[in-house]
Fold this protein.
Amino acid sequence: MRQSRKGERTINDSVLIEKVLQGSDHAFRLLVEKYRNDVFRTVFAVLRDQKEAEDAAQEVFIKLYTSLPQYENQGFKTWLTRIAVNFAIDVKRKQARSLEEVVEDTEQSGAVSTPDSVEKQVINNEQRRLVRKRLDELPENYRDVIYGFYIAEKSYQQMAEEQNVQVKTIETKLYRARHWMKRNWKEDDF
């Protein structure tokens, strides 16, 4: 039964593609309707921003429409997903480049943003709030050592004296805390 459904999907896709190539806008709308959620999920997985992913998904379908004559009937969904991933990666690269250009322009013009600018304060406050929230997620025995070392900038020796333990104990706790964070947190979470 599964094979027949898969076969039906292939037949339907093939028929729709053929109709789109013959100029049927309705057939293209059906393709978009059928795959819009898949395309959105794919680009969102790369971009991690709903608005950007919505815009990118629309662009993917425009790219699909113009690329359809090159399609070689070898798994439409896979081909469409590849287009979506490549497009999302391109968008991500453009974002990174434009951010680099802004930083370069700022550095070259000598205009260093003031630390008390409203925008920077809002971003810093949001980052602090997020870090505090994430620190609360740490197991309690790791939270103290992470806070002491990274936030309070204490040395191993200082923390060992405060906690009345050996320096090696602090090193071990910090190692285990880092390991816990790597296992449980993703870089994109921050």
Remarks:
- Residues 76-109 form the longest helix (34 residues).
- Residues 1-5 have pLDDT under 50 and may be disordered.
- The CA atoms of residues 10 and 78 lie 12 Å apart.
- The helical segments are 2-21, 25-47, 50-67, 76-109, 118-137, 140-151, 156-163, 167-184.
